Amino acid sequence: MRAVVIGAGRVGLGFAGELLGRAGAKLTVVGRGQVIDNLGRTGHYRVRLVDPGWQEERRVRVRRALPASEADAVAREIARARLVAVAVRPENLGAIAPLIAAGLEARTRKKPLNVIAFENAIDAGPNLRAAVAERLPADFRLERHGFSGAVVSRAVSSILGDPAAPEPLTILGDPAERFQVHGRSLKALPRLPGLVKVKDFEAAFNAKLYVFSAGHATVAYLGFLKGYRYVHAAVRDHEIRMAALAAMREGQEGLAARYGRKLAGGEAELEAILWRFDNAALNDPVTRVGRDPGRKLSPEERLLGAARLYEEETGKLPTMLPVAAAAAVCFAAVDGDPTGAETARQLSAHAPGLLQELSAAKPDAGLTESVTAAWERFSAGWRHDSPLFTLATRER
Amino acid sequence: MVMPRHPRSKVSPIMPMVVELLDEWGAEVETICPEEELTRLADVHVEHDLYVLKCGSELALSLAGALHAAGATILNPFPVALACRDKVIATRMLQAAGVPTPDTYVAAHPGELSPLLDDGPLVVKPYRGSNGVGVHVVWDPDQLDDVAHGGVVFAQRYHKPEGRDRKIYVIGGQVFGVKRVWPARTYEEKLGEPFNITDELREIALACGGALGIELYGLDIIVSDGHPYVVDISSFPGFKGVPDASLRLADYIYAAAERVLRGEPAVPGAATTEVSS
Q1: How distant is the Cα of A379 from the closest Cα of chain B, in angstroms?
Q2: CA–CA separation, A339 vs A136, rounded Å?
Q3: pLDDT tens digit string along A196-241?
Q4: Is A387–B203 a contact, with Cβ atoms under 8 angstroms apart?
Q5: B63 contacts B88 by C-beta, under 8 angstroms
Q6: What are the pLDDT digits (tens) for A258-308?
Q7: How far from the centroid of its chain's Cα atoms is residue B180's Cα?
Q8: Average pLDDT along chain B
């Protein structure tokens, strides 16, 4: 089997590429910059999977590494592939759609091509399909080919090594390998490790987003507020651990009411998630997990999306998800640096605008008020009492 | 981890927990107690990625100096730890950075201080002292005869403190205030209780770190007539009373070790702020 991975980043190499490699695929990686040069030069990379007290390193062979600028060569690779894995971030899907369209047009194989977008975005599959369709002739039979997003379970924290050096790169992640795709949107999918086909992709996506991702974001943003550098340290803080649990429980409650208890999971799942956040070997900084707070604060996303679902399904306002969202507003307002002397002034200057954007994007007045109230408590704490002894004092 | 060995009655759980957390997070930690070991100087080599200098004893400082000379990375950097140990150096560095300190005087003989007493009392301290040992408030020239010194007399203008002793602790830019009775005798007394850090105190606290190029330190602050004065700075104090102190310290040290492994200074920006000694 030939496969193409578009996007030589953490998820493309550390998850999609690794699983495809393990399935015996002859791998072509398409990307940009020095990473692609490194892959071309070394012909492989390593994926180090780490758990507390355990680690395993896997070598992933790269048959060919191509810069995205070599559009003809990329199209030829896609034309001969059975599967294309995309991990370029959702905002870049439009930019790589011409490569896939050209590959499909050049295709002589009878077997369908499956394109899986590993993007942590609910509509990544349909969006990519639409972007590709726009670049194909009207009579092109795109329905013969499959497009889906993917719900990725693995946390991939970093790429280690200097891409300019002669040594291969190492990607650091945890051992989770499950990924869920929309079964009906794909055609004659080859067997892959970790692959799970689901009927309701939205439910599967939200189940991860509103529990795991909501908890991760809660740990990151509150950890940031309390001055921790790493997720594994922040989650050891009793207050933050309890806050993350509470936020995830709220996520579960909304999910259970909408999709059923089985999908939402229970306490055992939450403990397993906290155990994963505890994984110091990932060296995951809170600033990395918290980055791009603007996107993470959007109405369908991990914090407010989970909060809205909770409110819609239970008729009550959630308690902890708005606090985590307010912490995300603080993170955004001080640009990821809580220690700067300008912190209070930055907060005062930027946060109201962020909250206004939030309220414009999200018409639900009750929820916006909850976030604003939590932010005001944080902000007042910051103005009058800079040391953060506890969240309670920060919220005073 | 270069640590002091306290008698059982004085053991604080903070540093043992730091060691435990770092170990759990995958770091290989060796605890070195210079006061309890016979060290063959020729055997002192750089064997670790990062040395954490928790102990401020003369022996620990000398060994840290030997390791520093051999190229070891030490947290806090050895020249800064040395400067913090010497109140003459540290106070002048803080003054130069605009940090408010009481008027400070040094002399070879206590008698030299005599004329200064016309303007009010002085606090005389051992210039390399710690934990309040040997600190005296001198009101009268006669008291100067009793001042013990080793050729360096260090004195500061006395400002009557408002309320209890105030400690400010800084861990990587996070500032914590703890007030406690003086002298604090029990561990519980040393834990004290938190006090609010005003914008002014926060600015002063961070300026101290900026002056020395460190992010891990403690300050003794006096507030008198509404004016704060920094009367002492210590590199790597006990951080008693800081909530989750072990977790915060382990997080900070882990990040410092990560920086060292990446070939960066243990303290961000240390290359440009290193103290000359």
Answers
A1: 14
A2: 51
A3: 999 999 999 999 999 999 999 999 999 998 889 999 999 999 999 9
A4: no
A5: no
A6: 999 999 999 999 999 999 999 998 889 999 999 888 888 888 899 999 999
A7: 17
A8: 89
Mutate to test the interface with B, among A229, A237, A342 (most CBs of B within 10 A): A229
| Start-to-end C-alpha separation, chain B | 23
| pLDDT at residue A385, as a whole number | 42
HSE-CB for A182 with a 13 A CA cutoff:
20
Residue A45 and residue A168 in contact, taking contact as beta carbons nearer than 8 Å: yes
* Residue B150 DSSP SS3: coil
Q: What is the rounded CA–CA span in Å between residue B260 and residue B71?
A: 13
Q: What is the ipTM of this complex?
A: 0.84
Q: β-strands B136-138, B122-125: how paired?
A: antiparallel
Q: Are A218 and A320 in contact (CB under 8 A)?
A: yes
What's phi and psi for B244, nearest 5 deg?
Answer: 55, 35
Residue written as tokens 């199209």? A75
Residue that has been written with the tokens 């969202």 in this structure = A325
Instruction: Please give the backbone phi and psi of residue A243, each rounded to the nearest 5 degrees, phi first.
Output: -65, -45
Alpha carbon distance B243, B170 (integer Å): 12
Spatial separation of the C-alpha atoms in residues A103 and A113, rounded to whole Å = 10
> B241 Cβ partners below 8 Å, 6+ apart?
B167, B169, B176, B178, B180, B190, B191, B192, B193, B194
Within a 10 A sphere around the Cβ of A357, how many other Cβ atoms?
Answer: 15
* A384 interface with B at CB cutoff 8 Å: yes
Secondary structure of chain A in the HEC alphabet?
Answer: CEEEEECCCHHHHHHHHHHHHHCCCEEEEEECHHHHHHHHHHCEEEEEEEECCEEEEEEEECCEEEECCCHHHHHHHHHHCCEEEECCCHHHHHHHHHHHHHHHHCCCCCCCCEEEECCCCCCHHHHHHHHHHHCCCCCCCHHHCEEEEEEECCCEEEEECCCCCCCCCEEEECCCCCEEEEHHHCCCCCCCCCEEEECCHHHHHHHHHHHHHHHHHHHHHHHHHCCCCEHHHHCCCHHHHHHHHHHHHHHHHHHHHHHCHHHHCCHHHHHHHHHHHCCHHHCCEHHHHHCCHHHHCCCCCCCHHHHHHHHHHHCCCCCHHHHHHHHHHHHHHCCCCCCCCCHHHHHHHHHHHHHHHHHHHCCCHHHHHHHHHHHHHHHHHHHHCCCCCCHHHHCC
Q: Where are the beta strands (DSSP E) in chain B?
A: 51-52, 74-75, 104-107, 122-125, 136-138, 153-157, 165-171, 174-180, 193-194, 216-224, 227-235
Task: Decide if B181 contacts B164 (C-beta within 8 A).
Answer: yes
Quote the minimal CA–CA distance from B82 to chain A in Å: 26
Q: Best of B168, B196, B200, B249 to disrupt the A interface by mutation (most A CBs within 10 Å)?
A: B196
Q: Does B251 touch chain A (CB under 8 A)?
A: yes
The total number of residues written for chain B in this structure? 277
Please name the member of B173, B174, B251 whose beta carbon is closest to the beta carbon of A233.
Answer: B251
Q: Do B172 and A389 touch (CB under 8 A)?
A: no
Give tens-digit pLDDT for A342-358: 555 565 666 667 677 76
Residue B102: HSE in the Cβ half-sphere, 13 Å Cα cutoff: 25
Nearest residue in chain A measured CA to CA from B202: A386
